[in-house]
Amino acid sequence: MLEVANVSRSFGGRRALDDVSFTVGDGRMTGFVGGNGAGKTTTMRIILGVLSSDAGSVSLDGRTLTPADRALFGYMPEERGLYPKMKVAEQIVYLGRLHGMSRAAATTNTERLLDSLELGERAGDTVESLSLGNQQRAQIAAALVHEPEVLVLDEPFSGLDPIAVETVQGVLAESAARGVPVLFSSHQLDIVERICDDLVVIAGGSVRASGSKEELQSRHGGSRYEIELSVDAGWLRDVDGVTVIDFDGGYALFEVQGAAEAGIATNDADATSAGAATNDAAADGAAQRVLAEALQRGSVRRFAPEHLSLTQIFKEVIR
């Protein structure tokens, strides 16, 4: 497991990172998202040892990273770093050799990766002759050729068409299946939502949210529910502690208040100060009471918590 703990970094008088902490689990695809200037690239460079931090630490499986550990990382920078006039396969073999691989092993891995990334037919072409999308695939092959123990990828899907995204996703998933922690940044939230196991949202140099997709969806959408009835759902507007957000005949999207806001009765005398867990449980109880009343009024075709999209969660946490 890769762990970033309380990392801070300033440039001059500007605080670029402020107490950044998150983990990338073994075999987990972790999406790292944020706007321009949020701190993603700075964080990645500190993980790789390209930049030093003013405070905090980066560790792998509980031990502080050494240069030898980082030599086993695979890194793809956002800026393309391949030699434009060098042939694709020749260059990737060369990079594998720099990581200490034998020529035979580097050649075997290069051929396998280029075939997996659908670049096999372009192995003898120079990098500069490739399209931008194919250059991106070649860069990914360069990051993977030495079979890294950790992958850190800055915008790996930039410039790729939907088919190429699926191809690259499959190659990265193979690394994750071997237990490799994979950290990747992207501005393409739909792609991140589709392929990541975990998510870290950073804004203004601070982590605003982190966790699995399911945890974040539950945390940020847990008080909203969708219901579809065989009868008009307008009666929901008159239910105490319920706010109707969207309504269309028998369909309604509604939000229920937690115990502290709605004054929902519980057996806990300290319910109003018990925190988020109590409020979530109370909100769920209120939603169940809505469901019970709905069943008395007619058949319920659908009832479920609203699952917010990554884009919705992102907008909510960076406000």
Task: Quickly describe the structure.
It is a peripheral membrane protein. This protein has two domains: 2-218, P-loop containing nucleotide triphosphate hydrolases (Rossmann fold, 3-Layer(aba) Sandwich); 222-307.
Biggest sheet: strands side by side, in what order? 6-7-8-3-9-10
Structural class: alpha/beta
Report the CATH topology name of the largest domain: Rossmann fold
Helix segment tally: 11
Fourth-level CATH superfamily of the largest domain: P-loop containing nucleotide triphosphate hydrolases
Overall average residue pLDDT: 88
Give the overall shape, derived from the CA principal axes.
Answer: elongated
Strand fraction equals 25-35%
| Helix-strand pattern | EEEHEEHEHHHEHEHEEHEEEHHEH
**CATH architectural grouping of the largest domain:** 3-Layer(aba) Sandwich
Subcellular location: Cell membrane
Main location: membrane
InterPro entries: AAA+_ATPase, ABC_transporter-like_ATP-bd, ABC_transporter-like_CS, ABC_transporter_ATP-binding, P-loop_NTPase
Pfam families: ABC_tran
Characterise the protein shown here.
The protein has helices spanning 40-48, 67-70, 88-98, 103-116, 132-144, 162-177, 189-195, 213-221, 259-262, 276-297, 310-317, and strands spanning 2-11, 14-24, 29-33, 55-60, 63-64, 73-76, 150-154, 182-185, 198-203, 206-212, 224-229, 242-248, 251-256, 300-305. By secondary structure, the protein is α/β, with parallel strands linked by helices. The chain has 2 domains: 2-218, P-loop containing nucleotide triphosphate hydrolases (Rossmann fold), CATH 3.40.50.300; 222-307. The chain has a 6-stranded mixed β-sheet with strand order 6-7-8-3-9-10, sandwiched between helices. A hairpin with a 2-residue loop joins β12 and β13 (251-256). The radius of gyration is 24 Å and the shape is elongated. Residues 259-276 have low confidence and may be disordered. Residues 2-229 form the ABC transporter domain. Belongs to the ABC transporter superfamily. It is a peripheral membrane protein. It is found in: Cell membrane.
